[in-house]
Amino acid sequence: MRTSMHVYSVIILCAAGALFNNCAYHSGEEPVPSNRDVRYSVDVKPILIKHCYSCHTDTSTHPDRSGYAFFNDFNELKKELKPSTANTAYTILVARLKYIESPGMPYKQTPLSDSLIQVIQDWILIGAPEN
Ligand code: HEC
Q: What pLDDT was estimated at residue 31?
């Protein structure tokens, strides 16, 4: 009966979210982490290095680099975990990855796969530790 309980709780969450016009549940996104053992150093950082560091470091020379938001600094990365103004149910980081906040990231490139975005969401859901 776990599945029906889950569906039931999602309906309740969405109903509560609808009151505030920001239901956080979308297909492919679970309100609880799918992996609680996610680690920043092993799982999250390599994604950022591969897909984001070319523009998001203070030493980037990429023509489309960001002039701020240097994710090689963990404290800078944590600043992106505030709610997005585009949809407060999401952090700025995830809202950019899901193209909810524009421009979507990685900038002018193919969006990350749902499974990579899920790794980052899982990490945020467990409290975004520097583990
Ligand atoms: C090709 C260069 C490039 C790449 C690659 C890139 N970004 Fe960006 N990013 C930018 C630019 C430029 C901006 C500023 C754009 C704007 O908001 O107008 C930006 C802005 C952002 C912001 C908003 C920062 C803020 O506080 O306003 C976030 C979050 C972000 N990027 C996350 C990412 C993530 C995560 C990745 C990797 C998956 C990534 N970006 C990859 C160029 C890039």
A: 67
Pocket test for ligand 1, best of 53, 96, 99 (most atoms within 8 A of CB): 96
Kindly report, residue by residue over 6-49, the tens digit of the pLDDT: 545 444 444 443 333 333 444 445 568 889 999 999 999 999 99
Q: The whole model's pTM is what?
A: 0.83
Domain boundaries, the chain: 1-31, 33-125
Instruction: Scan for tokens 């995830």, then name that residue.
Output: 94
Residues with a CB atom less than 6 Å from ligand 1 = 51-52, 54-56, 62, 64-66, 69, 80, 92-93, 96-97, 103, 105-109, 112
Among 49, 78, 80, 105, say which to mutate for ligand 1: greatest number of ligand atoms within 8 Å of CB: 105
Q: Would residue 97 be called left, alpha or beta, if left means φ above 0 and alpha means ψ between -120 and 50 degrees?
A: alpha
Place of tokens 């999401």: 90
